[in-house]
Amino acid sequence: MLKRTTLLALGFAVMMVQGTANAKTAAELNDLEIAHAAYTADNIDIRYAHLALAISTNKAVQEFAATMIRDHVAVNNQALALLGKLGAQPQDNFLSQSLQKDAEKIIDEMSKLRGAAFDKRYAENDLAYHTAVVGLVEKSFIPNIENAEVKALFEGGLVIFKAHEDHARKMVKSLK
Amino acid sequence: MSGKSRHILLSVVAALSAAALAAGSHQSAMAAQVRPTEHIIEIKKFRFVPNVLQIRAGDTVTWINRDIAPHTATGKNKSWDTGAIKKDDSVSLTISPEMALAYFCRFHPGMTAIIEITVNE
Questions:
Q1: Which of A78, A133, B32, B37 is most buried, by the most CB atoms less than 10 A from its CB?
Q2: Gyration radius (Cα) of chain A, Å
């Protein structure tokens, strides 16, 4: 159970939806659906980080969690400001729902852990999560976003998510 | 002290300035010939640009954050810190030789850079 990664969960969720009658892939989402999925993904990582701040006593883990909250809130604020400027509302979609559903399970699972077991699981999950999000943003979102300002926002976000991925990788290594 | 640009003068610099004033007219004349310069370091794509900056003691360095994520410039030994710099905000510091010249972003420790102080002529 502990070895299940967010990367696999996310990939599985996308494949499941692709197999239904109303099949839709991440690459087919419109700009407003992409914005909703990204906003949802940011909020999920913020929730993971708040859980880490509540449970972990490891200074490095707490500092990482604080950075996740600070950065993802900044990204979401930029996204909301841009959507406001464009007079647009993000649109809920299958990917947002899949992300949310998976996150609930992972939060339930991590909430039961304490000490080093929690730290390890949180770090591994955040590494897998950022790896999955980087792939999604880089390969499915950015190439398909039509609005130039929305695309620029995602390009800025991608730099942040890659930095988080590197940071999480180092944290995973240091906790072994 | 808030807004787009905060200028932070360190007490060390004030002490150095006072010492310079007391050092006699010859040195004062020389100091007058070497005016402090302002340098800009942009923070973009999680990098300090330029990554290595050469300055003279007493010059001012301004960090401007172009990223969405907030950053800091923090001395390696944490003896100085710009505090959080939000997107498109800036913070200026006057640099003295006593400051740790290797620095990093406290929020993203993988971001590092160096200020080099050259000898005043």
A1: A133
A2: 16
> Which pair of tokens denotes residue A72?
């993802």
Token pair 């390890």 is at which residue?
A120
Cβ contact, residue pair B110, A74, below 8 Å: no
Angle at A138 between CA A28 and CA A92, to 5 degrees: 40
| Residues 6 or more apart in contact with residue A58 via CB below 8 angstroms | A119, A175
Per the listing, tokens 């004033």 go with: B21
Q: Show the tokens assigned to B97.
A: 């030789």
Q: Using the beta-carbon criterion (under 8 Å), do A70 and B70 form an inter-chain contact?
A: yes
Q: What pLDDT, on the 0 to 100 scale, is given for residue A22?
A: 44
Enter the ipTM.
0.83
Give the pTM: 0.81
Residues of B with Cβ-Cβ distance to A46 under 8 angstroms? none
